[in-house]
Amino acid sequence: MTYRHTRRGTLILALCFPIVALVIGVSVISGNWLPAIIVTIIMMSLATLFSSLTVEVDTSELRWFFGPGLWTYRPSLREIDDVAVVRNHWLMG
Predict the structure, then answer these.
(1) Distance CA 53, CA 1 (A)
(2) What residues make up the domain containing 88?
(3) Distance of alpha carbon 26 from its chain centroid, rounded?
(4) What's the order of all strands across the beta sheet hosting 72-73?
(5) Which residue from 16, 34, 44, 84 has the least number of CB within 10 angstroms?
(6) Would you call 61 exposed, middle or buried from its count of C-beta atoms within 10 A (0-12, 13-18, 19+)?
(7) How many domains does the chain fold into?
(8) Torsions phi, psi for 59 (to 5 deg)
(9) pLDDT score for 93
(10) 51 Cβ contact list (under 8 Å, min separation 6)
(11) For residue 57, what are the β-bridge partners?
């Protein structure tokens, strides 16, 4: 049996898209497009990479990855000594 849960990164998306729109708007007014192109590439890359967090647990390992899964963390279940339910402050994510 495999457990799989994905959380959407709505905050990163809500921040990236308005920043891109603002930078493009400033570029339209100023006529300087190079900063807009650079910022758009960086922000869209961040939005894609951190748009979600997926956690999977199967019979042998725990896996988690951000966005499309360019890098994946895979500790074996044998390596996990202890688990606990915690409540983090909202500033910690």
Answers:
(1) 20
(2) 3-92
(3) 27
(4) 3-8, 52-57, 62-66, 72-73
(5) 84
(6) middle
(7) 1
(8) -75, -15
(9) 66
(10) 8, 9, 12, 13, 66, 67
(11) 3, 62
Is the pTM of the predicted complex or chain greater than 0.90? no
Torsion of the alpha carbons at 33, 45, 9 and 62, rounded to the nearest 10: -170
Residue type present at position 33: W
The string of DSSP letters for 30-88 reads H---HHHHHHHHHHHHHHHHTSEEEEEE-SSBEEEEETTTSSEE--BGGG---------
Taking only the tens place, the pLDDT of each residue in 33-78 is 998 899 999 999 999 999 999 999 999 999 999 999 888 999 999 9
In percent, the amount of the chain with pLDDT more than 70 equals 99
